[in-house]
Structure formats: C-alpha cells, structure tokens
Design a protein that fits this description.
The complex is a heterodimer of chains A (357) and B (480). With 357 residues, chain A is mainly alpha-helical. With 480 residues, chain B is an alpha/beta fold. Chain B has 15 helices and twelve strands. In chain B, strands 3-4-5-2-1-6-11-8-12-7 form a ten-stranded mixed sheet. The chains are: A mainly alpha (357), B alpha/beta (480). At the A-B interface, helix 1, helix 8, helix 11, helix 21 and helix 22 of A face helix 1, strand 3, helix 7, helix 14 and helix 15 of B.
Chain lengths: 357, 480
Amino acid sequence: MSGVVVLAVVAIFQGIFLVLLVGFIGVRRQVERQRDAALAENRRRISEPLSSWLVGASSVDELVGVLRTFPPGTALAITSNLARTAIPADRRAALATAVRDEPWVRASLAGATSRRWGRRLEAARCLALAGTPSDGAILETLLNDPRPAVGIAAVNALPLVADARLVGEVLDRLVMLPGVVRVYLQDTLRELRSLVEPALAERLSSPDASARALARWTELAAALELPTGLERASRLATHPDARVRVAVARALRRVPTRRSTESLGVLLRDTDDAVRGAAAHALGELGAPSAIPSLLAAAHDPSWSVRYRATIALTQLGEQGRAAVRSLRTDGDRYVADMATLITGLGDGALLDMAEA
Amino acid sequence: MPSVEVVALLHRVLWWADHGVLVYFLLLNSFYAFLLVLSIPELWLHWRMAGDEQLSRLLASDALPPLSILVPAYNEEVTIASSTLSFLTLAYPKFEVILVNDGSKDRTIEVMTEEFDLYEVPPAYPRPLETKRVRAVYRSRRHSRLVVLDKENGGKADSLNAGLNAARHPYVVAVDADTLIEPDALMRLARPFLMGTNVAAVGGTLRVANGCEVKMGRVIDPRVDFNWLTGCQVVEYLRAFLFGRLGWNTLGGSLIISGAFGLFRRKYLLAIGGYKTGNVTEDMDLVVRLQRYLYENGIKAELPFIPDPVAWTEVPSDSRVLGRQRERWHRGLIGTMMTHRDLLFNRKYGVMGMVAMPYFFFGEMLAPLVELLGYVMTAVGLSIGAVDTKFALLFLGCAVGYGTLLSFWAIVLEEMSFRRYRRRSDLARLLFFGLIEGLGYRQLTVWYRLQAFWKYVRGKDDWGVMTRKGFGPPAPPQRS
C-alpha cells in the first residue's frame, strides 16, 4: 500500500470521525433537552405530594406511593435533595422507615461496596435518606471512602445511623479526614451533641492521644462549643506540641472566664510565635481589659504576626485598649510605632475584617 | 544545471527532513491524544465533584483558607473601578484584595482614590522580596478588604512581588486587572486545599470574554464572538484548558498555571524569591522554579489544574495585537526553557525532567521551527518533483484534520461537562471556528511564534503594547 493510499484512508477516517462527533453533540443536546423536560415534569409531579407531606397534610405512605412511580434514579435524586434540606428529625426518620424496603433503596445501598465510586456515592446519598442504626458498618465504610465526595455524602447519614460507638469511631477517624469532609462532619455532629460530648471529653483526657488528634478534637470542641470538651481542652495549654497549644489558644476564645484569660496570658509568652499570635487573637475576642498589660508587651514581640495580632486585639478591649494603641504610636521602637499608626488609622470595617481573619 | 549528484543529495536531504517532520508530527500528536485520553476521567471526576459540593455550606464554614488576591494594574483607569468592585464582591468567606498600581501614567490611582475613598496608612509589614519603591499604601473607607499599593513602575512581576510582600494570608491568587472572575470561582479553586493533600498551587480555567454580555464586571451571558480571530481563540482556549492542562494532572508535571488566574501557597513563592522580573512570561517561569524548588527540597506538593473555577479574559481581536501577544508568550517560553535547560531529561526531577520539560522544549518551543521546516521542504520538494503533489496535499489535509479533530473533541468535552455556550448559534460558531482554525489562524500564530526566536536571539525583553477594547456590548442576539 502506497503512502498516498494510507493518507487517503486516514483522511477518510478523520472525516467520518468529525461527522460522528458533530452528530454526537447534536444527539446529546437533544437527549439533554428531553432529560430537562422529564426533570421539570417529575418536579411538577412530586411538588404537590411532597409539600402536602411536609406540612403534615398527607401520610408518608402516600409520598412513597408517588415515589414508586418514578424511575429508581429519579426517586433517589428527589429524596437525596430532601435529605440535604432541614426537615424535622421525626419526619426524616419516618421517611427513612417508609422507604427502607423499596427496591430502589435496596439496590442503591447494595452499591456501598461497589468498585465504582459513582455507585458508592449513590449508596451514601441513599443512606442519608434511608439509613437506620443497623447500618453502622455500611456508614463506617462509606465515611472512610478514599473519594472525598463519597465521605461528604455519607456524613449526612450520621444523624439517622449514629450511636455512641459509631460516634466514637467517627471522632477517632476525624483526625485523618481531609478538611472538606471534616467540615461537613462538624456541621452534622452538631445534631449529635449529646453523643459527641462524653466521647470527646474522654478522648481529650486520654494520655495516649497523638498531638494531631488532640488538636483536631480541641478544634471540634470549640466549633461545637461543648463545655466539658472545652474544659478538658484548656488543660492542654502546656502540651509539648505547638499544634495542640495553638488549637487550645483558639478554643479558649469561646470560654469567657478569668481562668481562660490567665491561660491565654501564659500562652502569650509561649516559645512558638503561632501560639503567641493565636493567644493574642483570642484575648482580643474575649475582650478582657485585664489582658491589656500582657498584650502591650506582646505588641513589642519580635515576630511581625504577633505584634500585628496583639495591636489589633488591644483595639477590641474598649477605650482603655484603644488608648494603649494610641500611646504606642510614639513608641521608641519604629516597628511598634508603625504598626500602631497603621491600626489606629484603619476604618471600623477594615479593623473588624482584620480582627476576624 | 545542477549535477546529478547534487540533485540526488537534495532528494536524500528532503527524504530525511520530510520523514523527520512526519515522525515529529506523529509523536507530538500521539502525545496530544494521550493527554486527551487522560483528561476524560479527570474531567468527569471534577464535574461530579463540582455538582456534589454544597458550596454555600462551605462558604459559611472555617474550612476555606483566607486568601489575598493580587491585582497588578498599569494604566487601567477606564476599567479599574468596576474590575476592583467585581473582585471585592466575590463569594468567599475571608479574603483581601491587594491592588498594585505599577506607576501608571494615567489616572488609575486617582480613580481608585475617588471611587473607594482611599486613605493612606503606614506600610507596617515585612518585605522579604526586593521591589521598586512603594510610594504609599492605602486602605479604603468603603471596602475594608481593599488594600492599594502605589509603587514606581517595575513591571508585572515586580508588582506581584510587592503584592506578595503586603499579603497577610497564607494563599495568594494572582489575577490580571481585566480578568472577570465568576462569583464562586475562588471557592472552587480552593477545593484541592480542602482535600487534605499538600498543594503548592492550583490553576483555574480561563475563557474568552470577547462577545459575551458583561455587566458590573461579571459575564452574565457567555457567547462566542463573530470575529474569526477571537472565535478561533475560544476554541484554542477550550482545547488548552479542557484537555491540555487537565491531562497533565494525571501525569503530575504541569508547567503552566495561568498568570491571569492561579492560586499559590505564599510561603513557597517567598521561598523561591517570588516572581522573576525581566521574564516576559512570569507565570511559566514561576511554576518551573516552584516545581524545581519542590523537587530539590523533597517536598511532596501538587500543582493541580481544576476545570470548573472560571475566569474570563479579553483576548486580542486584531492580528497586530495577537501577534505581539503570541510572540511575547513564545519568547517567554524560549527564555524559561533555556534558563532551565539543565532539567531536560534530568531524572532527578522526575516527571518534570523526563516528560514535562522535553514536551515543552520539543513539542512547544521548537514546534514552529519544525512546522516551518515542513512547509519549506514540501515546497522545495514539490518544485523539484521530489514530493508527489497528491501526497503533499493529503498529508497537509491529515495534519489540519487532526488539529480539527482535537478541537472538536474539546468542544465535545465542554458539551459533556460544563456547557457554558447554551445557544445553538454559539455551538455552530464554535464548530465553524474549530473547522477553520487550521486553515490560516494556526499558520498565523506559527509566524508570530517564529518571530520570538529572532527577538530572543537579539536579547529583546519588551512586552509590546497590548491594547484592549474593554467589555463592550454583546454579540447581536441570535435565534436559537
């Protein structure tokens, strides 16, 4: 076969392929249009029975009856969206029980151990809708899925499935979870405060816990504002690992007591500048005027970030604190004076923004 | 009359040159096809994740790291107020905008002072990077997140370094003053940081804003322009971002994160000495130095590209400006490749040394020279009868056809994933420009890129004048 023939064959194949690609785009657009129309129709069909159930005008069985008329994927999509919305816990539990034995639910949950992550994602979404306390093992698997998207979807199932043991497991695993899953988990754990609080307090007192774990648990105690957890966390202010001390300093801003102010005063003299910065930030948020002398000292810190945090914190301590910052504008140390001039020159909005960040 | 020996020698030279060009063409296009295949699962993954994330929930959380947006501006008095406002109103929990006026000769700083009620503050921040003198630092009474640096002219890289010094957050996003960022793009761009892996930088997608309807610094109706030059660039950008850069994610060695829209970890940028002044494409140089730093220090950090955070940019709509841009881009590529030539086939640098650098050196930098050689040899061959006319035409047709196929693939990927261009008329234009791109536009850019070699040899390091028209009215409405 000559070169010309080879090239001619290649050119013909290219031409066919180009036509196929254009055809594919056209067909896909058509399919998308039909899918959009079907979606709109499904929304229209489900809208009334759904609203009726949500306001308590119809039973859950009626809603499930309507869902049964949809294709499995559509029923799951509709109910997955429901699982994400803030519906009362008792209704959510009633819906979970009612759909639990539906064929489309069983088929979806069977995908929890599938090799295809799309199916595992579907299972996680389904579990968030139809999970029961007996699904602890499935949920555990899904929460630890290597795909963060699956873990995120599974987090939504916690309120339906979790018991004390699983919450304990979740707290242990939380340490290693990627940031995004942790945030979702944190929000969901808010609904399970009564189970989280004792488990967290126990872990924060554990002598064998790693520094990383203690830092994460302290962050969780602060985010959920759990009194026992925060009390245990405050005992870690002298922990040898700086990560833990930073987390403690951040957490203490949620505890407006004299003891917290004193602990933060100690952390303000820490050897690590990240700890000193976090302590200054927390003292500003606590708004305790008794911290002014230690913050004034921190405003002379060799680290720029500590000086910056301490000067901002002083402005949060009422007129006394602001007067202290004004006095720093004439300080002999040029860096201290410049920082004070910068902070006193800021508008309220900028100051608030800097204090928050 | 040339002797028989000379003609025979010429035939032999032509045979070798033609076959060399053919092998180069096959290898390069096979690599493009490979990137395309690699990009498909990546695109699918991001598409699924983008659809699954509850961004509003994230927005209210502490999980997203605070960012500093660095905006270098030079003579931008016409658009600076609206573009700054569009940056300030992005959906992201904690960020600051640092606008650096690079010694503009127009009223940029006056416009900013009037529009944002600026007041001067002392420059109380450490300056680890050397830059031209910062004349004043301002903050705004209207927008607490805005910081404006007024400095002496030193170029884009110098302005970015000044911004890096002033940034107080651990991550920085470098954008051009005329870039239009989609409201949720920052949240999407920060996604890899939340996944727990150590990320040094993240690249987002740039799209062509020409012809789109723009209001208050936002693209509200994406359109494909009627102008053939900008239309061809729409297809070119789709191809470059949807499979060019996405394919490199799997290989793990991308060397480009666009200077008009990229997110970086500040500590790494400071560690490599910030942006290098004097390089006409500061973004590629930065990424190569960053990759190099990570390899040399044994830091395992990724530089992924994420397709769904989108920023829109105005591209040149006339051939003179396009020529200057492409010549500058290619000169920057040559400069970066020559500076870091020791990385070429250097096993110590892993994928970057063994795959990325050879690809950018041979497949990108030398491509216009090889293409020119192909055209010249074919012309000479045809004139002396050493090459069959039918063969030459078919070869040219296959080469153009292959480029068109890749462009159409990019359009298919766009259709299957994000589908910004909803109208049928826009799709028709995309396909049309994908079809004609290989017949004129491509050759034009080859010519511009060839000029870069000449300028590089002569040691020119100027940017050339980049005139922009701004975001005017949209393309006329079409029935769809």
